[in-house]
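During the second half of the funding period, the structural biology subgroup turned its attention to how the target accommodates small molecules. The most pressing case was 3-methyl-2-oxobutanoic acid, which had performed well in the primary screen but for which no bound structure existed. We therefore specified the complex as follows and requested a full 3D prediction, including the ligand pose.
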Amino acid sequence: MAYKQLQQRGMPLPPVTVSTLRGMKADGEPIACLTAYDASFAAIVDAAGTDMVLVGDSLGMVIQGHDTTVPVTVADIIYHCRVVARGLRRAFLMADMPFMSYTTPVQALENAVRMMQEGGAMMVKLEGGLGQLRIVEHLAQHDIPVCAHIGLKPQSVHKLGGFRVQGREQAQALRMIEEASALERAGADVILLECVPSELGQAVRDAVGVPVIGIGAGPGVDGQILVLYDMLGITQGRLPRFVRNFMQGADSLASACEAYVQAVKEGSYPAPEHCFS
Ligand code: KIV
């Protein structure tokens, strides 16, 4: 396989790397992220200027029609990662580690390696806090870029009893800030923060040196991510408060994705109506 960075020399914007993301945080440039699950959408999202693309286990819900992300397998993620990778030119590709695919350091490493070697992922994301420090440390020791997903962890939906805003109580909020710092010390390169009050989003962002990408975490984080089908108005049923339908007022899928990237970059998304207090 040719080295993508070399293939893409001469492109107007070089491919996004972990250092690009770190630099964007340092420069205060918001990081625009979206999910994608196939090559055609990946190409649209990439051309729109999205910095990071996630092959999320949300595919269990929006592609496979399950009620939760729990049934998604490593093979599912690798398949979708491989097809998404073919559509990308500039964006950084992150793959979700499915439910129970990272219960021990050895298992996590084995599955992360498959996602990178077979799927073409450049970073893996796992849901976890203090209980996953050993796993993050082990992956980082093997130079696997890691994103730690905290706040609302959809894989824990049956334990949580539903998809709910997290960190509203002070003790829980403080624990989340500690978790983010501990995960950074363990070697996490990115923190993804889901469904927390905006004030906590900002506090987590200020507590760590690595980029914090939010989904329902307010405007005070380093970047935003949305599930592609949610922001295109494809997803059926009731959507979380933080979702904005970017197809409204857009004349194509491409212009909706461009409007999203622009709104993230200029700070007009998320607006107060998309935030939790
Ligand atoms: O699976 C996914 O799409 C995610 C996003 C909600 C961030 O984890």
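Two results from this model are relevant to the next phase. The CA atoms of residues 218 and 272 lie 8 Å apart. The radius of gyration is 17 Å.
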